[in-house]
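> Could you send the VWA domain-containing protein prediction when you get a chance?

Sure thing. Input:
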Amino acid sequence: MRKTLSAVLMAAISGTAVPVPIHAAALSAGASPQQSSASGYCRRPDPLPRLEAESALQQAARTPTSAPTSAPVDAEIVTTGSRVTSGEAPPPPPPPPPPPPPPAPPAPGSSAAGTAPRVAAPAPPPVAMTTGAPARSAAGSPSYPSRPREQVQSGMLTAGEHDDLLNPELYASYVRRSGLGQQVKALPVLDTARLLTVAVEDASGRPAPFVPVELRCSDGNSLTLTTQADGTVAFFPGLDRLSTSVRIRAGGSDWRVVDVPRTAGKARVGFTIEGAAAKVTRLDLALVVDVTGSMSDELQFLQAELDSIVASLNQRHPELDIRIGMTFYRDQGDEFVTRTFPFTGDGATARGNLGRQFAGGGGDYEEAMQDALVRAAGLEWRRDAVKTLVLVADAPPHAEDVPRAWLAAEHLRAQRVQVVPVGASGVGDLAEYVMRAMAAATQSRYAFLTDDSGIGDPHAPPAIDCYLVTRLDKLLTRIIDSQISGRRIEPEKADVIRSVGRYDAGKCILPPDFGRENG
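Output:
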Protein backbone atom coordinates (compact mmCIF):
# COMPACT_ATOMS: atom_id res chain seq x y z
CA MET A 1 0.00 0.00 0.00
CA ARG A 2 2.80 2.41 0.89
CA LYS A 3 4.57 1.72 -2.39
CA THR A 4 1.35 2.48 -4.23
CA LEU A 5 0.90 5.77 -2.37
CA SER A 6 4.49 6.70 -3.08
CA ALA A 7 3.99 6.08 -6.78
CA VAL A 8 0.82 8.15 -6.76
CA LEU A 9 2.65 11.03 -5.07
CA MET A 10 5.46 10.96 -7.61
CA ALA A 11 2.89 11.14 -10.37
CA ALA A 12 1.24 14.10 -8.65
CA ILE A 13 4.44 16.10 -8.10
CA SER A 14 6.29 15.49 -11.34
CA GLY A 15 3.77 16.62 -13.90
CA THR A 16 4.51 18.31 -17.19
CA ALA A 17 1.32 20.11 -18.19
CA VAL A 18 0.22 23.65 -17.44
CA PRO A 19 -2.57 23.59 -14.81
CA VAL A 20 -5.79 24.09 -16.77
CA PRO A 21 -7.67 26.44 -14.41
CA ILE A 22 -4.70 28.69 -13.74
CA HIS A 23 -2.57 29.03 -16.85
CA ALA A 24 -4.00 32.39 -17.86
CA ALA A 25 -3.67 33.95 -14.42
CA ALA A 26 -0.47 32.32 -13.26
CA LEU A 27 1.67 32.78 -16.38
CA SER A 28 2.90 36.13 -17.57
CA ALA A 29 2.51 37.06 -21.21
CA GLY A 30 6.16 36.38 -21.90
CA ALA A 31 6.38 33.05 -20.09
CA SER A 32 7.19 30.03 -22.16
CA PRO A 33 4.81 27.07 -22.32
CA GLN A 34 5.37 24.19 -19.97
CA GLN A 35 8.61 22.41 -20.75
CA SER A 36 9.51 20.56 -17.57
CA SER A 37 9.65 16.78 -17.43
CA ALA A 38 9.91 14.19 -14.72
CA SER A 39 13.66 14.82 -14.55
CA GLY A 40 13.62 18.54 -15.36
CA TYR A 41 13.87 21.61 -13.17
CA CYS A 42 11.22 24.21 -12.32
CA ARG A 43 8.50 21.65 -11.62
CA ARG A 44 4.86 22.56 -12.14
CA PRO A 45 1.87 20.58 -10.87
CA ASP A 46 -0.22 18.30 -13.03
CA PRO A 47 -3.62 19.55 -14.23
CA LEU A 48 -6.44 19.29 -11.75
CA PRO A 49 -8.89 16.44 -12.31
CA ARG A 50 -12.23 17.32 -13.84
CA LEU A 51 -14.92 16.55 -11.28
CA GLU A 52 -18.47 15.75 -12.25
CA ALA A 53 -20.90 18.65 -12.01
CA GLU A 54 -22.57 19.02 -8.65
CA SER A 55 -26.17 17.85 -8.82
CA ALA A 56 -29.13 20.09 -8.13
CA LEU A 57 -29.44 18.36 -4.76
CA GLN A 58 -25.85 19.28 -3.94
CA GLN A 59 -26.33 22.89 -5.02
CA ALA A 60 -29.53 23.35 -3.03
CA ALA A 61 -28.79 24.74 0.40
CA ARG A 62 -31.90 23.43 2.05
CA THR A 63 -33.03 22.89 5.59
CA PRO A 64 -32.88 19.18 6.50
CA THR A 65 -36.09 17.23 6.82
CA SER A 66 -35.40 16.72 10.50
CA ALA A 67 -35.52 20.45 11.20
CA PRO A 68 -38.67 21.67 12.99
CA THR A 69 -40.84 23.83 10.78
CA SER A 70 -41.20 26.39 13.53
CA ALA A 71 -37.46 27.06 13.81
CA PRO A 72 -36.71 30.79 13.96
CA VAL A 73 -35.24 32.27 10.80
CA ASP A 74 -32.23 33.67 12.61
CA ALA A 75 -31.13 30.22 13.82
CA GLU A 76 -31.21 28.16 10.65
CA ILE A 77 -28.15 26.00 11.34
CA VAL A 78 -29.31 22.52 12.30
CA THR A 79 -26.90 19.84 13.46
CA THR A 80 -27.35 16.11 13.50
CA GLY A 81 -25.04 13.19 13.94
CA SER A 82 -26.84 10.92 11.51
CA ARG A 83 -27.38 11.01 7.80
CA VAL A 84 -30.49 12.77 6.55
CA THR A 85 -33.04 10.67 4.72
CA SER A 86 -35.17 12.60 2.30
CA GLY A 87 -37.84 9.92 2.01
CA GLU A 88 -39.24 10.35 5.52
CA ALA A 89 -41.29 13.36 6.47
CA PRO A 90 -41.38 14.45 10.12
CA PRO A 91 -44.67 14.05 11.98
CA PRO A 92 -46.67 17.24 12.38
CA PRO A 93 -46.28 19.02 15.71
CA PRO A 94 -49.04 18.54 18.29
CA PRO A 95 -51.57 21.33 18.59
CA PRO A 96 -50.84 23.81 21.35
CA PRO A 97 -52.89 23.48 24.54
CA PRO A 98 -55.35 26.23 25.43
CA PRO A 99 -53.80 29.21 27.18
CA PRO A 100 -53.95 29.15 30.98
CA PRO A 101 -56.48 31.43 32.72
CA PRO A 102 -55.17 34.83 33.78
CA PRO A 103 -53.88 35.00 37.35
CA ALA A 104 -56.21 36.38 40.01
CA PRO A 105 -55.41 39.93 41.15
CA PRO A 106 -53.70 40.18 44.52
CA ALA A 107 -55.87 40.78 47.56
CA PRO A 108 -55.96 44.33 48.86
CA GLY A 109 -53.13 45.06 51.22
CA SER A 110 -51.13 42.04 50.13
CA SER A 111 -47.57 42.38 48.89
CA ALA A 112 -45.71 40.52 46.20
CA ALA A 113 -42.86 40.26 48.63
CA GLY A 114 -44.92 37.96 50.78
CA THR A 115 -43.95 34.97 48.65
CA ALA A 116 -40.65 33.88 47.21
CA PRO A 117 -40.11 35.81 43.99
CA ARG A 118 -39.64 33.92 40.73
CA VAL A 119 -36.25 34.72 39.27
CA ALA A 120 -36.34 35.22 35.52
CA ALA A 121 -33.77 33.33 33.49
CA PRO A 122 -31.08 35.55 31.99
CA ALA A 123 -31.74 36.64 28.44
CA PRO A 124 -29.77 34.69 25.83
CA PRO A 125 -26.91 36.53 24.16
CA PRO A 126 -27.85 38.31 20.96
CA VAL A 127 -27.30 36.50 17.69
CA ALA A 128 -24.61 38.32 15.75
CA MET A 129 -26.02 37.55 12.33
CA THR A 130 -29.68 37.94 11.47
CA THR A 131 -31.60 37.54 8.25
CA GLY A 132 -33.94 40.46 8.75
CA ALA A 133 -36.87 38.45 10.13
CA PRO A 134 -38.43 39.79 13.34
CA ALA A 135 -37.85 37.76 16.48
CA ARG A 136 -40.88 35.97 17.86
CA SER A 137 -42.31 37.41 21.03
CA ALA A 138 -43.06 35.28 24.04
CA ALA A 139 -46.76 35.69 23.43
CA GLY A 140 -46.41 34.47 19.87
CA SER A 141 -44.28 31.43 20.71
CA PRO A 142 -45.96 28.03 20.85
CA SER A 143 -46.43 26.86 24.40
CA TYR A 144 -45.74 23.19 23.72
CA PRO A 145 -42.18 22.02 24.37
CA SER A 146 -39.78 22.37 21.44
CA ARG A 147 -36.27 21.10 20.88
CA PRO A 148 -33.86 23.46 22.63
CA ARG A 149 -31.70 25.48 20.26
CA GLU A 150 -28.50 27.12 21.36
CA GLN A 151 -28.33 30.84 20.74
CA VAL A 152 -24.91 31.61 19.32
CA GLN A 153 -22.93 34.78 19.10
CA SER A 154 -19.53 35.71 17.78
CA GLY A 155 -16.44 35.70 19.94
CA MET A 156 -17.19 32.43 21.73
CA LEU A 157 -14.65 30.11 20.09
CA THR A 158 -10.96 30.43 21.01
CA ALA A 159 -7.93 29.63 18.88
CA GLY A 160 -4.20 29.98 18.34
CA GLU A 161 -2.09 30.28 15.19
CA HIS A 162 1.42 29.50 13.97
CA ASP A 163 3.57 30.60 11.04
CA ASP A 164 5.94 27.83 9.96
CA LEU A 165 7.78 30.17 7.57
CA LEU A 166 8.85 32.27 10.56
CA ASN A 167 9.93 29.13 12.44
CA PRO A 168 11.78 26.94 9.91
CA GLU A 169 13.91 25.13 12.50
CA LEU A 170 10.84 24.13 14.48
CA TYR A 171 9.02 22.99 11.37
CA ALA A 172 11.95 20.83 10.29
CA SER A 173 12.04 19.30 13.77
CA TYR A 174 8.27 18.73 13.64
CA VAL A 175 8.53 16.91 10.30
CA ARG A 176 11.30 14.67 11.65
CA ARG A 177 9.57 13.93 14.94
CA SER A 178 6.17 13.22 13.40
CA GLY A 179 7.56 10.61 11.04
CA LEU A 180 4.47 11.05 8.90
CA GLY A 181 6.45 11.92 5.80
CA GLN A 182 8.07 8.49 6.03
CA GLN A 183 5.02 6.49 7.12
CA VAL A 184 2.67 7.80 4.43
CA LYS A 185 4.61 8.58 1.29
CA ALA A 186 1.74 10.55 -0.22
CA LEU A 187 2.30 13.36 2.27
CA PRO A 188 4.08 16.51 1.07
CA VAL A 189 7.56 17.18 2.40
CA LEU A 190 8.06 20.94 2.55
CA ASP A 191 11.47 22.29 3.51
CA THR A 192 10.84 25.72 5.00
CA ALA A 193 14.50 26.04 5.99
CA ARG A 194 15.51 26.37 2.32
CA LEU A 195 13.71 29.38 0.93
CA LEU A 196 14.19 31.80 -1.96
CA THR A 197 12.17 34.97 -1.42
CA VAL A 198 11.66 37.63 -4.09
CA ALA A 199 10.60 41.04 -2.74
CA VAL A 200 9.23 43.73 -5.07
CA GLU A 201 8.65 47.38 -4.17
CA ASP A 202 8.10 50.68 -5.94
CA ALA A 203 10.45 53.67 -6.02
CA SER A 204 8.97 54.93 -2.75
CA GLY A 205 9.79 51.69 -0.97
CA ARG A 206 6.20 50.48 -0.75
CA PRO A 207 5.55 46.74 -1.26
CA ALA A 208 4.21 46.05 -4.75
CA PRO A 209 1.42 43.45 -4.87
CA PHE A 210 0.18 41.56 -7.95
CA VAL A 211 3.53 41.72 -9.78
CA PRO A 212 4.43 38.61 -11.84
CA VAL A 213 7.79 37.13 -10.88
CA GLU A 214 9.31 34.75 -13.42
CA LEU A 215 11.99 32.28 -12.38
CA ARG A 216 13.87 30.37 -15.10
CA CYS A 217 15.90 27.26 -14.34
CA SER A 218 19.12 26.19 -16.01
CA ASP A 219 17.35 23.81 -18.42
CA GLY A 220 15.04 26.55 -19.75
CA ASN A 221 11.95 25.56 -17.77
CA SER A 222 10.29 28.40 -15.87
CA LEU A 223 7.85 29.17 -13.08
CA THR A 224 5.79 32.34 -12.66
CA LEU A 225 4.18 33.36 -9.38
CA THR A 226 2.64 36.70 -8.42
CA THR A 227 3.52 38.80 -5.38
CA GLN A 228 1.27 38.91 -2.34
CA ALA A 229 0.14 42.17 -0.73
CA ASP A 230 3.47 42.36 1.11
CA GLY A 231 5.26 42.38 -2.26
CA THR A 232 6.86 38.95 -1.85
CA VAL A 233 6.86 35.55 -3.51
CA ALA A 234 8.35 32.47 -1.84
CA PHE A 235 9.99 29.73 -3.91
CA PHE A 236 10.89 26.41 -2.26
CA PRO A 237 14.00 24.90 -3.92
CA GLY A 238 12.97 21.36 -3.00
CA LEU A 239 9.26 21.58 -3.77
CA ASP A 240 9.76 23.62 -6.95
CA ARG A 241 12.81 21.57 -7.96
CA LEU A 242 15.03 24.55 -8.68
CA SER A 243 18.41 24.27 -10.35
CA THR A 244 21.58 25.36 -8.56
CA SER A 245 21.47 28.72 -10.32
CA VAL A 246 18.35 30.45 -11.64
CA ARG A 247 17.47 33.67 -13.45
CA ILE A 248 14.73 35.89 -12.03
CA ARG A 249 12.87 38.96 -13.23
CA ALA A 250 9.91 40.86 -11.82
CA GLY A 251 7.34 42.84 -13.78
CA GLY A 252 9.34 42.75 -17.00
CA SER A 253 12.60 43.93 -15.41
CA ASP A 254 16.02 42.75 -16.48
CA TRP A 255 17.02 39.20 -15.61
CA ARG A 256 19.13 38.63 -12.53
CA VAL A 257 21.20 35.50 -11.82
CA VAL A 258 20.72 34.06 -8.34
CA ASP A 259 22.39 31.14 -6.58
CA VAL A 260 19.84 28.89 -4.88
CA PRO A 261 20.48 27.67 -1.30
CA ARG A 262 21.42 23.99 -1.41
CA THR A 263 21.39 23.52 2.36
CA ALA A 264 19.42 25.14 5.17
CA GLY A 265 19.38 28.85 4.55
CA LYS A 266 17.39 31.66 3.02
CA ALA A 267 18.11 33.88 0.04
CA ARG A 268 16.28 37.14 -0.62
CA VAL A 269 16.29 39.05 -3.91
CA GLY A 270 14.88 42.56 -4.24
CA PHE A 271 13.42 44.34 -7.28
CA THR A 272 12.17 47.90 -7.75
CA ILE A 273 9.45 48.55 -10.32
CA GLU A 274 8.66 51.75 -12.15
CA GLY A 275 5.55 53.65 -11.11
CA ALA A 276 3.52 53.37 -7.93
CA ALA A 277 2.65 50.07 -6.31
CA ALA A 278 -0.92 48.92 -6.84
CA LYS A 279 -3.38 49.42 -4.00
CA VAL A 280 -5.35 46.56 -2.51
CA THR A 281 -9.04 47.28 -3.03
CA ARG A 282 -10.53 43.80 -3.37
CA LEU A 283 -10.78 40.66 -1.25
CA ASP A 284 -11.99 37.26 -2.44
CA LEU A 285 -12.70 35.13 0.63
CA ALA A 286 -13.55 31.45 0.18
CA LEU A 287 -14.76 29.20 2.99
CA VAL A 288 -14.13 25.47 2.61
CA VAL A 289 -15.91 23.73 5.47
CA ASP A 290 -16.22 20.11 6.58
CA VAL A 291 -19.92 19.66 7.44
CA THR A 292 -19.88 16.05 8.62
CA GLY A 293 -21.49 15.16 11.94
CA SER A 294 -18.39 15.75 14.04
CA MET A 295 -18.33 19.41 12.98
CA SER A 296 -21.69 20.36 14.49
CA ASP A 297 -20.29 22.62 17.22
CA GLU A 298 -18.01 24.55 14.88
CA LEU A 299 -20.72 24.97 12.25
CA GLN A 300 -23.13 26.43 14.78
CA PHE A 301 -20.75 29.26 15.56
CA LEU A 302 -19.24 29.80 12.12
CA GLN A 303 -22.03 32.02 10.81
CA ALA A 304 -21.75 34.45 13.69
CA GLU A 305 -17.96 34.44 13.47
CA LEU A 306 -18.08 35.22 9.73
CA ASP A 307 -20.38 38.16 10.31
CA SER A 308 -18.02 39.55 12.94
CA ILE A 309 -14.96 39.08 10.71
CA VAL A 310 -16.51 40.81 7.69
CA ALA A 311 -17.77 43.69 9.85
CA SER A 312 -14.30 44.20 11.32
CA LEU A 313 -12.65 44.13 7.89
CA ASN A 314 -15.17 46.63 6.55
CA GLN A 315 -14.44 48.91 9.49
CA ARG A 316 -10.67 48.72 8.97
CA HIS A 317 -10.87 48.96 5.16
CA PRO A 318 -14.02 50.94 4.25
CA GLU A 319 -13.23 50.91 0.51
CA LEU A 320 -12.57 47.18 0.34
CA ASP A 321 -14.73 45.24 -2.12
CA ILE A 322 -15.36 41.86 -0.45
CA ARG A 323 -16.75 38.78 -2.16
CA ILE A 324 -17.44 35.50 -0.38
CA GLY A 325 -17.60 32.03 -1.91
CA MET A 326 -18.15 28.69 -0.18
CA THR A 327 -17.60 24.97 -0.62
CA PHE A 328 -19.05 22.56 1.91
CA TYR A 329 -18.05 18.91 1.88
CA ARG A 330 -18.71 15.53 3.45
CA ASP A 331 -17.57 12.18 2.05
CA GLN A 332 -18.35 9.60 -0.58
CA GLY A 333 -21.66 7.88 0.14
CA ASP A 334 -23.15 10.82 2.02
CA GLU A 335 -26.11 12.90 0.87
CA PHE A 336 -23.63 15.05 -1.03
CA VAL A 337 -19.85 15.13 -1.44
CA THR A 338 -19.37 18.84 -2.21
CA ARG A 339 -21.74 21.78 -2.35
CA THR A 340 -20.28 24.95 -3.88
CA PHE A 341 -21.53 28.53 -4.00
CA PRO A 342 -19.72 31.00 -6.31
CA PHE A 343 -18.33 34.29 -5.10
CA THR A 344 -20.91 36.93 -4.28
CA GLY A 345 -20.65 40.49 -3.03
CA ASP A 346 -24.11 40.27 -1.47
CA GLY A 347 -23.67 39.70 2.24
CA ALA A 348 -27.23 38.48 2.72
CA THR A 349 -26.76 35.84 0.02
CA ALA A 350 -23.52 34.60 1.56
CA ARG A 351 -25.12 34.63 4.99
CA GLY A 352 -28.02 32.55 3.76
CA ASN A 353 -25.76 30.07 1.96
CA LEU A 354 -23.88 29.41 5.19
CA GLY A 355 -26.85 29.60 7.53
CA ARG A 356 -28.79 26.83 5.81
CA GLN A 357 -26.04 24.22 6.13
CA PHE A 358 -26.18 21.49 8.74
CA ALA A 359 -23.73 18.90 10.00
CA GLY A 360 -24.39 15.25 9.24
CA GLY A 361 -23.05 12.17 7.53
CA GLY A 362 -19.43 11.15 7.64
CA GLY A 363 -19.01 8.02 9.70
CA ASP A 364 -15.33 7.21 9.30
CA TYR A 365 -12.55 9.63 10.19
CA GLU A 366 -11.30 10.85 6.80
CA GLU A 367 -13.44 13.08 4.56
CA ALA A 368 -13.49 14.34 0.96
CA MET A 369 -11.30 17.41 1.55
CA GLN A 370 -9.53 16.85 -1.76
CA ASP A 371 -12.68 17.34 -3.86
CA ALA A 372 -13.63 20.47 -1.91
CA LEU A 373 -10.22 22.01 -2.56
CA VAL A 374 -10.46 21.17 -6.25
CA ARG A 375 -13.85 22.93 -6.35
CA ALA A 376 -12.40 25.95 -4.55
CA ALA A 377 -9.46 26.14 -6.96
CA GLY A 378 -12.00 26.35 -9.78
CA LEU A 379 -13.81 29.38 -8.37
CA GLU A 380 -13.58 32.61 -10.37
CA TRP A 381 -10.89 34.37 -8.36
CA ARG A 382 -10.20 37.96 -9.39
CA ARG A 383 -6.65 38.63 -10.56
CA ASP A 384 -6.32 41.95 -8.69
CA ALA A 385 -7.78 40.77 -5.38
CA VAL A 386 -6.23 39.47 -2.20
CA LYS A 387 -7.27 35.82 -2.19
CA THR A 388 -7.88 34.00 1.08
CA LEU A 389 -9.22 30.49 1.58
CA VAL A 390 -10.27 29.51 5.11
CA LEU A 391 -10.31 25.71 5.45
CA VAL A 392 -12.24 24.52 8.53
CA ALA A 393 -11.74 20.80 9.14
CA ASP A 394 -11.13 18.19 11.81
CA ALA A 395 -10.02 15.31 9.57
CA PRO A 396 -7.64 14.74 6.66
CA PRO A 397 -8.48 13.24 3.28
CA HIS A 398 -8.35 9.47 2.88
CA ALA A 399 -4.75 8.30 2.44
CA GLU A 400 -5.23 7.58 -1.25
CA ASP A 401 -6.69 11.08 -1.74
CA VAL A 402 -3.86 13.03 -0.10
CA PRO A 403 -2.03 13.52 -3.44
CA ARG A 404 -5.13 15.13 -4.97
CA ALA A 405 -5.58 17.41 -1.94
CA TRP A 406 -1.95 18.50 -2.18
CA LEU A 407 -2.26 18.98 -5.93
CA ALA A 408 -5.22 21.32 -5.33
CA ALA A 409 -3.15 23.24 -2.77
CA GLU A 410 -0.39 23.70 -5.35
CA HIS A 411 -2.91 25.07 -7.85
CA LEU A 412 -4.22 27.47 -5.21
CA ARG A 413 -0.65 28.59 -4.59
CA ALA A 414 -0.16 29.19 -8.33
CA GLN A 415 -3.26 31.41 -8.26
CA ARG A 416 -1.86 33.38 -5.28
CA VAL A 417 -4.50 32.02 -2.92
CA GLN A 418 -3.38 31.94 0.71
CA VAL A 419 -4.81 28.93 2.55
CA VAL A 420 -5.69 29.51 6.22
CA PRO A 421 -6.48 26.10 7.72
CA VAL A 422 -8.42 25.99 11.00
CA GLY A 423 -7.94 22.70 12.85
CA ALA A 424 -11.22 21.95 14.62
CA SER A 425 -12.08 19.59 17.48
CA GLY A 426 -10.55 16.15 17.19
CA VAL A 427 -7.99 17.11 14.54
CA GLY A 428 -5.29 14.45 14.48
CA ASP A 429 -1.64 14.28 13.52
CA LEU A 430 -2.25 13.54 9.84
CA ALA A 431 -4.74 16.39 9.41
CA GLU A 432 -2.44 18.86 11.17
CA TYR A 433 0.50 17.78 9.01
CA VAL A 434 -1.39 18.24 5.74
CA MET A 435 -2.95 21.57 6.73
CA ARG A 436 0.28 23.06 8.05
CA ALA A 437 2.04 22.18 4.79
CA MET A 438 -0.75 23.87 2.81
CA ALA A 439 -0.47 27.02 4.92
CA ALA A 440 3.31 27.25 4.61
CA ALA A 441 3.33 26.58 0.87
CA THR A 442 0.88 29.44 0.27
CA GLN A 443 2.67 31.93 2.58
CA SER A 444 -0.04 31.68 5.18
CA ARG A 445 -0.56 30.50 8.77
CA TYR A 446 -2.08 27.48 10.48
CA ALA A 447 -4.85 28.17 13.02
CA PHE A 448 -6.37 25.74 15.51
CA LEU A 449 -9.22 25.79 18.01
CA THR A 450 -8.47 25.46 21.74
CA ASP A 451 -10.41 24.31 24.79
CA ASP A 452 -10.35 27.74 26.45
CA SER A 453 -13.90 28.45 25.31
CA GLY A 454 -15.30 25.28 26.93
CA ILE A 455 -17.46 24.77 23.84
CA GLY A 456 -17.86 21.47 22.02
CA ASP A 457 -15.67 18.38 22.04
CA PRO A 458 -12.10 18.49 23.35
CA HIS A 459 -9.60 19.98 20.93
CA ALA A 460 -6.36 18.13 20.30
CA PRO A 461 -3.35 20.21 21.36
CA PRO A 462 -1.18 21.14 18.37
CA ALA A 463 2.43 20.07 17.91
CA ILE A 464 3.49 23.72 18.21
CA ASP A 465 6.01 25.18 20.66
CA CYS A 466 4.62 28.67 21.18
CA TYR A 467 1.41 30.56 20.46
CA LEU A 468 -1.12 33.02 21.85
CA VAL A 469 -4.76 32.10 22.48
CA THR A 470 -7.37 34.69 21.50
CA ARG A 471 -10.93 34.71 20.22
CA LEU A 472 -11.26 32.92 16.87
CA ASP A 473 -13.06 35.79 15.14
CA LYS A 474 -10.35 38.26 16.13
CA LEU A 475 -7.61 35.82 15.16
CA LEU A 476 -9.02 35.24 11.67
CA THR A 477 -9.60 38.98 11.29
CA ARG A 478 -5.92 39.61 12.09
CA ILE A 479 -4.70 36.95 9.66
CA ILE A 480 -6.88 38.18 6.80
CA ASP A 481 -6.12 41.82 7.60
CA SER A 482 -2.41 40.96 7.52
CA GLN A 483 -2.87 39.47 4.07
CA ILE A 484 -4.68 42.63 2.94
CA SER A 485 -2.30 45.18 4.46
CA GLY A 486 0.90 43.25 3.73
CA ARG A 487 2.20 43.35 7.30
CA ARG A 488 1.87 41.02 10.25
CA ILE A 489 -0.69 42.23 12.80
CA GLU A 490 -0.29 41.10 16.40
CA PRO A 491 -3.14 40.90 18.96
CA GLU A 492 -3.71 43.61 21.50
CA LYS A 493 -2.52 42.66 24.97
CA ALA A 494 -6.08 42.73 26.28
CA ASP A 495 -7.14 40.20 23.62
CA VAL A 496 -4.67 37.52 24.74
CA ILE A 497 -6.36 34.85 26.85
CA ARG A 498 -3.17 32.90 27.57
CA SER A 499 0.25 32.27 26.05
CA VAL A 500 2.17 29.06 25.46
CA GLY A 501 5.95 28.94 25.19
CA ARG A 502 8.22 31.91 24.48
CA TYR A 503 6.42 33.89 21.79
CA ASP A 504 7.82 36.97 20.05
CA ALA A 505 5.77 38.45 17.17
CA GLY A 506 5.07 35.09 15.57
CA LYS A 507 8.47 33.58 16.28
CA CYS A 508 9.25 31.04 18.98
CA ILE A 509 12.40 31.84 20.95
CA LEU A 510 14.52 28.70 20.79
CA PRO A 511 16.53 27.43 23.75
CA PRO A 512 20.33 27.48 23.37
CA ASP A 513 20.50 23.68 23.18
CA PHE A 514 17.70 23.35 20.58
CA GLY A 515 19.99 22.07 17.83
CA ARG A 516 21.50 19.35 20.02
CA GLU A 517 18.13 18.18 21.36
CA ASN A 518 16.37 18.19 18.00
CA GLY A 519 19.14 17.41 15.58
